Amino acid sequence: MTVRQKVQHILNSITPIQVLALGFATVILIGTFILMLPISSSTNTETDFTTALFTATSATCVTGLVVVDTGTYWSRFGQTVIMILIQIGGLGFMSFATLLFMVMGKKITFKERLVMQEAMNALTLQGIVRLIRYALISTFVIEGIGAALLSFKFIPKFGFWEGLFRGIFHAVSAYNNAGFDVFGNFKSLVQYTESFSVNFVIMTLIVFGGLGFTVQYDIINKRHFKKFSLHSKVVIITTSILIVVGALIFYLLEHDNPETMKYLSFKGKVLSSLFAAITPRTAGFSTLDTANMTNASKFFTIILMFIGASPGSTGGGIKTSTFAVIVMTLFSVVKGREDTEVLSKRIPKDEVYRAFSVICIGIFIVIFDVLLLSVFEKADFLSIFYEVVSAFSTVGLTMGLTPHLDIVGRIVIILTMYAGRVGPLTVIYALMRRHANSNAAIKYPEDNVLIG
């Protein structure tokens, strides 16, 4: 076998899941080397590898955690590179590959469609190219509208070009649930706490980006809730409950906190409560000082971050539909029913097993990383727990620990962000070859163990 044949054999043996995992890693490395260039920093000096790698990983994994301030450390070129990485990471590199294929008139192969299916979390291959085409068009349209609305607010304050850039940057960052901002000094959107227009646009972009492209497609094309797929109904209902209940809880916990909401107007308190409920859905922006929230609010934020956005979206976490399936399974067990039932439909057992696998692997990753950081970092437990969940769920909210991480802490958070964006199951499947149905014919004897 020639070298060329060996290379071709290796390429052919790579599974779609491995292509997805390697693709994200490749984008991160390219972004790292570009950010290391002197032109990328505001001081025109070379950036060290770990800082560039951390930033590129955070941007590509649409997280928002940073070790240097995005608004002051990076030059306009560097900020543009970060914005492009956010866009690629949010949509997925296969979406851009599809765009390139369509522009070049190249036929999309079956294997490439399998990778697209994996990237979009689609149930079937049918209509996958159409879905990605829709995702590309809708993304640029929604981001364009968001950028225009934000620019109207920013241009009078920062000037035309600066205001326009800030409008585009924050629209891309919000829709892709990234949480990067260029206002400087790690302040995020605190200066716009009582601005209805900025809050409304950013929250709308976050929610749309976090719903997932299949849900967006249902909303735009089917329009009537009864016609939506079960997945879309579950995502919309779960998202709505988390936002409404979350906002109410944050209002009750923070409205009298002098460090956050106490001195805000009623409008400001309502906006802040809504924003605090929406941004943990993996967005990472903040209009309140998260470090000064009550411990109850911080812990509740951790719960929302862990749940995250929805499948096939720009966000992370275990996903809303996974959370919903777990909750409905618990209800079914309590009611003594054999099957998991959601909206008068029965969920297949393999999907229930997958949901439990996702949440268990997520918990394991979080526990392991919290243990590691507790050993190597001098910080209180809640700050470490908060940071790890924020990284795993690609949120970007922080209590201020990230800029002070040492080399070990940075590596742990980098790997956590990568695992969170690609997906816990995807990482495991990429590292291990699955032999599907290899033991399908084997049925072992049934026996019991004590539970509970």
Could you walk me through the main structural features you see in this protein, from its secondary elements to its overall organization?
The protein is mostly helical. The protein has one domain (13-429). Helix content is 64%, strand content 1%. The chain has helices at residues 3-13, 16-35, 49-60, 70-73, 76-91, 93-104, 110-120, 128-158, 160-175, 196-211, 213-221, 230-254, 266-278, 295-307, 320-334, 349-376, 381-392, 407-422, 424-431; strands at residues 340-342, 345-347. A two-stranded antiparallel sheet has the order 1-2. α2 runs antiparallel to α5, α10 runs parallel beside α13 (266-278) and α12 (230-254) packs across α13. The chain is globular, with a radius of gyration of 22 Å. The model is unreliable at 433-438 (pLDDT under 50). This is Trk system potassium uptake protein TrkH. It is a multi-pass membrane protein.
